[in-house]
Amino acid sequence: MTAGRRAAGMVMTDAMADLLERFRDGQVPALARAISIVESERAGFQDLLHEVMARGPRAKRVGFTGPPGAGKSSLVAAAAATYRAAGEHIGVVAVDPTSPYSGGALLGDRIRMNDLATDAGIFIRSMATRGSLGGLATTTKEVADLMDGFGFDRLLVETVGVGQTELEITAAADTVVVVLVPESGDAIQAMKAGLMEIADVFVVNKADRPGSARLVKELRQALHLRAGSALKDIPAHHGVDLARIAKKEARNAAPPVSPADWAVPVLTTNALTQDGVPELLEAIDQHLTWLEHGGQLDVRRRDRARVRVRDVVARELSREAWKSEEVTAALDLGVDRISKGEETPYSVARGILASLLR
Ligand SMILES: Nc1nc2c(ncn2[C@@H]2O[C@H](COP(=O)(O)OP(=O)(O)O)[C@@H](O)[C@H]2O)c(=O)[nH]1
Ligand SMILES: [Mg+2]
Question: In this structure, are 111 and 171 located in the same domain?
């Protein structure tokens, strides 16, 4: 480990080494501290992640995404309570500023969030959205990795789906549950939003409301159409952002079980009464079994690793570039020339890149 650390050019301060020791010892305050270090990108946060991730991914990761108010938090709370009752240790990452996890009662009296919040076997971290796509995704992934490294059996990741952000859940979870409600629109909208590509399980929550049966029917028809219209070589899970990257990989690797072999179920739930929740958890487990046995879990983890390396390289390259005085001088000069109409941002950037790559 020490050799690897040195090879990567990393140095660990005493404080960080001490934190790591307490983290490995399973001390929850050390996890909380590690998360805040990573969230604020404090010095040494990458070394910390490197150490924590050295064992590789272990936790089962389930993502819940969908529009605000669909009932994601309610379903996550129900799932967390069930898994806890079965003895699992659970980490929850909620990217939702309105998340009710801290105190109060969710689901009436059935599950008191306070009970979950004081249970040592469950750790809940709510994070505010940062607005920027990259910022949101990067931190969510890293917080999930910290929880994985801490040793939780299962991670539940809630992201509020607003436009593209729900698509990012694929970068943090193995199984993606898309939660919709009759009010959230029809299947055509879901298709347009790219949800057909990322959903491993569809849930129409608030099944007590009118219109849920129709939405279920529409979603099933849309999925049927999609399955019929030749998936070609685009993996279902990463059909959006990662498709291009994943494609090359897929060509080189032995073909895994086709994503088409997983029939995306469309379930209904009522998170208030818990109707349909056991069936949802069953579907999640079936999907995980399918992932493990069909080779897809490895494919998804490899996709994630690839994206992560690219993220870090991009971030570090940019950081390195702007550290150089020569580059910042070229930027200042370039800005002058742009303002006089002598250059454009593109020509200035090209010049800077050329000097960096020299
Ligand atoms: N009628 C009804 N209300 C629900 C159901 N599930 C959740 N809710 C309520 O919908 C609101 C939003 O739920 P929440 O879990 O916070 O949604 P989130 O924004 O997707 O996380 C809360 O007031 C819940 O009590 C359901 O199945 N039926
Ligand atoms: Mg929520």
Answer: yes
Whether 110 is in the pocket of ligand 1, judged by its Cβ within 6 Å, is: no
Cβ of residue 272 lying under 6 Å from some atom of ligand 1: yes
Between the CA of 220 and the centroid of ligand 2 the distance, in Å, is 25
69 alpha carbon to ligand 1 midpoint, in Å? 6
Residues in a beta bridge with 122: 90
Best-predicted range by mean pLDDT among 13-17, 230-234, 244-248?
Answer: 13-17
Is 18 part of any domain?
Answer: yes
> Six-digit token pair at 214?
């129709």
The token pair at 151 is 């040793």
Q: Is 205 in the pocket of ligand 1 (CB under 6 A)?
A: yes
What is the average pLDDT score of the chain?
81
- Are residues 70 and 42 located together in one domain of the fold? no
Q: What is the pTM of this model?
A: 0.81
How do residues 85-114 score in pLDDT, each as one tens digit? 999 999 999 886 565 555 444 443 444 555
How far does residue 21's CA lie from ligand 2's centre (Å)? 33
Question: In this structure, is residue 77 part of a structural domain?
Answer: yes
pLDDT tens by residue, 14-67:
899 999 999 999 999 999 999 999 988 888 899 999 999 998 889 999 999 988
Query: Is 302 domain-assigned?
Result: no
R_g of the chain computed on alpha carbons: 22
Residues 45 and 60 in one domain: no
pLDDT tens, 135-162?
455 688 889 999 999 999 999 999 877 5
Give the closest residue to 137 by CA, choosing from 179, 96, 167, 163: 167
188 and 246 together in one domain: yes
Q: Is residue 318 part of a domain?
A: no
Q: Which residue has the tokens 């990067």?
A: 138
Total count of domains within the chain = 3
Q: Is the CB of 100 under 6 A from ligand 1?
A: yes
Model confidence at 263: pLDDT above 60: yes
Domain span at 47: 1-54
39 and 88 part of one domain = no
d(C-alpha 221, C-alpha 231), whole Å: 16
Q: Residue with the nearest Cα to atom 17 of ligand 1?
A: 71
Q: What CATH number is associated with residue 119?
A: 3.40.50.300
- State whether the beta carbon of 280 lies less than 6 angstroms from ligand 1: no
